[in-house]
Amino acid sequence: TEQELDEMFSTAIEVAKEAGKVIRDGFYKEKTVDTKISAADLVTETDQAIEKMVHAMITKKFPDHRFIGEESTAESGEKHQLTDDPTWIIDPIDGTTNFVNHVQEVSFSLGVMVNKKTVIGVVYAPIKEEMFSARLGKGAYLNSEKLKASDITDLKEAVIIFEGGNSRDAKLLEEKVKNIHALIAHSRGIRAYGSAAVNLCHVAAGRGQGYVEYGLHIWDFIAGALIATEAGAVVLDPTGSDLDPLRQRVLCACSPEVAKALSQILTHIDTGYD
Ligand code: LIP
């Protein structure tokens, strides 16, 4: 019901603020860093502490809701199951490499799905004090300001965000380099801010016209994807079909025209299915 959704939304904001405090406290301190799938895939004790705290806060309020978190998934090594039940999907720190390097583009990302549809998206970048939020059908906001994506339709005038990702697989890198070439050739320039969630919010806020990444997971992009679409951007599978949250890839563009042009110039990489 609408009332339940209101309650879930206020919990999401509250949880994001608490997570933001922990990120801010840890930002300038010495960190214990560990690696996961590659030397470029980092986790710190702050990621793990936030995930535990957030899990506890959510289950206390909504004991029968499901939870998918980046670090608990990494620890258990199990595939996460996306069901129709209300599910809270969180990335405690999206942009852990930035966090470790004192780069301000770090965020806490929280999406809530019901019947496999995202109904709430919250991305909080606590160092910059930017709280991005969206509810399905109700628009997207940066703090209290309503967001609207850019209205550019020509890829030649578009700035596209692109990430190298954390896989070091040689074949995959070759295809990514092809994509970097194609993007530079056809756009006004490329950028990489180091956090999928922040990248999507940048497009939502008109700070760029597109974002493409291959090799992501649901917690990296599910919240930002709702924020972007609620700001009028399009979020798709890079091939142009509907976004599949378990397909490990995302294309976001400020307009359908830019989305189509991007989809046509890219080599579509299949990194697997969660
Ligand atoms: C990161 C993403 C980033 C991507 C990295 C990584 P993490 O998330 O947001 O855009 O390029 O491969 O997945 O690991 O910092 O939560």
Automatic annotation (TrEMBL):
It comes from the Eukaryota. Keywords: Hydrolase, Magnesium, Metal-binding. Its EC number is 3.1.3.25. Its cofactor is Mg(2+). One of its GO terms (molecular function) is inositol monophosphate 1-phosphatase activity. It catalyses: a myo-inositol phosphate + H2O = myo-inositol + phosphate. It holds the Pfam family Inositol_P. CDD domains: IMPase. GO terms for biological process: inositol metabolic process; phosphatidylinositol phosphate biosynthetic process; signal transduction. It is an enzyme of class 3 (hydrolase). Mg(2+) binds at E70, D91, I93, D94, D220. Pathway: Polyol metabolism; myo-inositol biosynthesis; myo-inositol from D-glucose 6-phosphate: step 2/2. Gene3D superfamilies: 3.40.190.80, Fructose-1,6-Bisphosphatase, subunit A, domain 1. InterPro entries: IMPase, Inositol_monoP_metal-BS, Inositol_monoPase_Li-sen, Inositol_monophosphatase-like. Belongs to the inositol monophosphatase superfamily. This is Inositol-1-monophosphatase. It comes from Plakobranchus ocellatus.
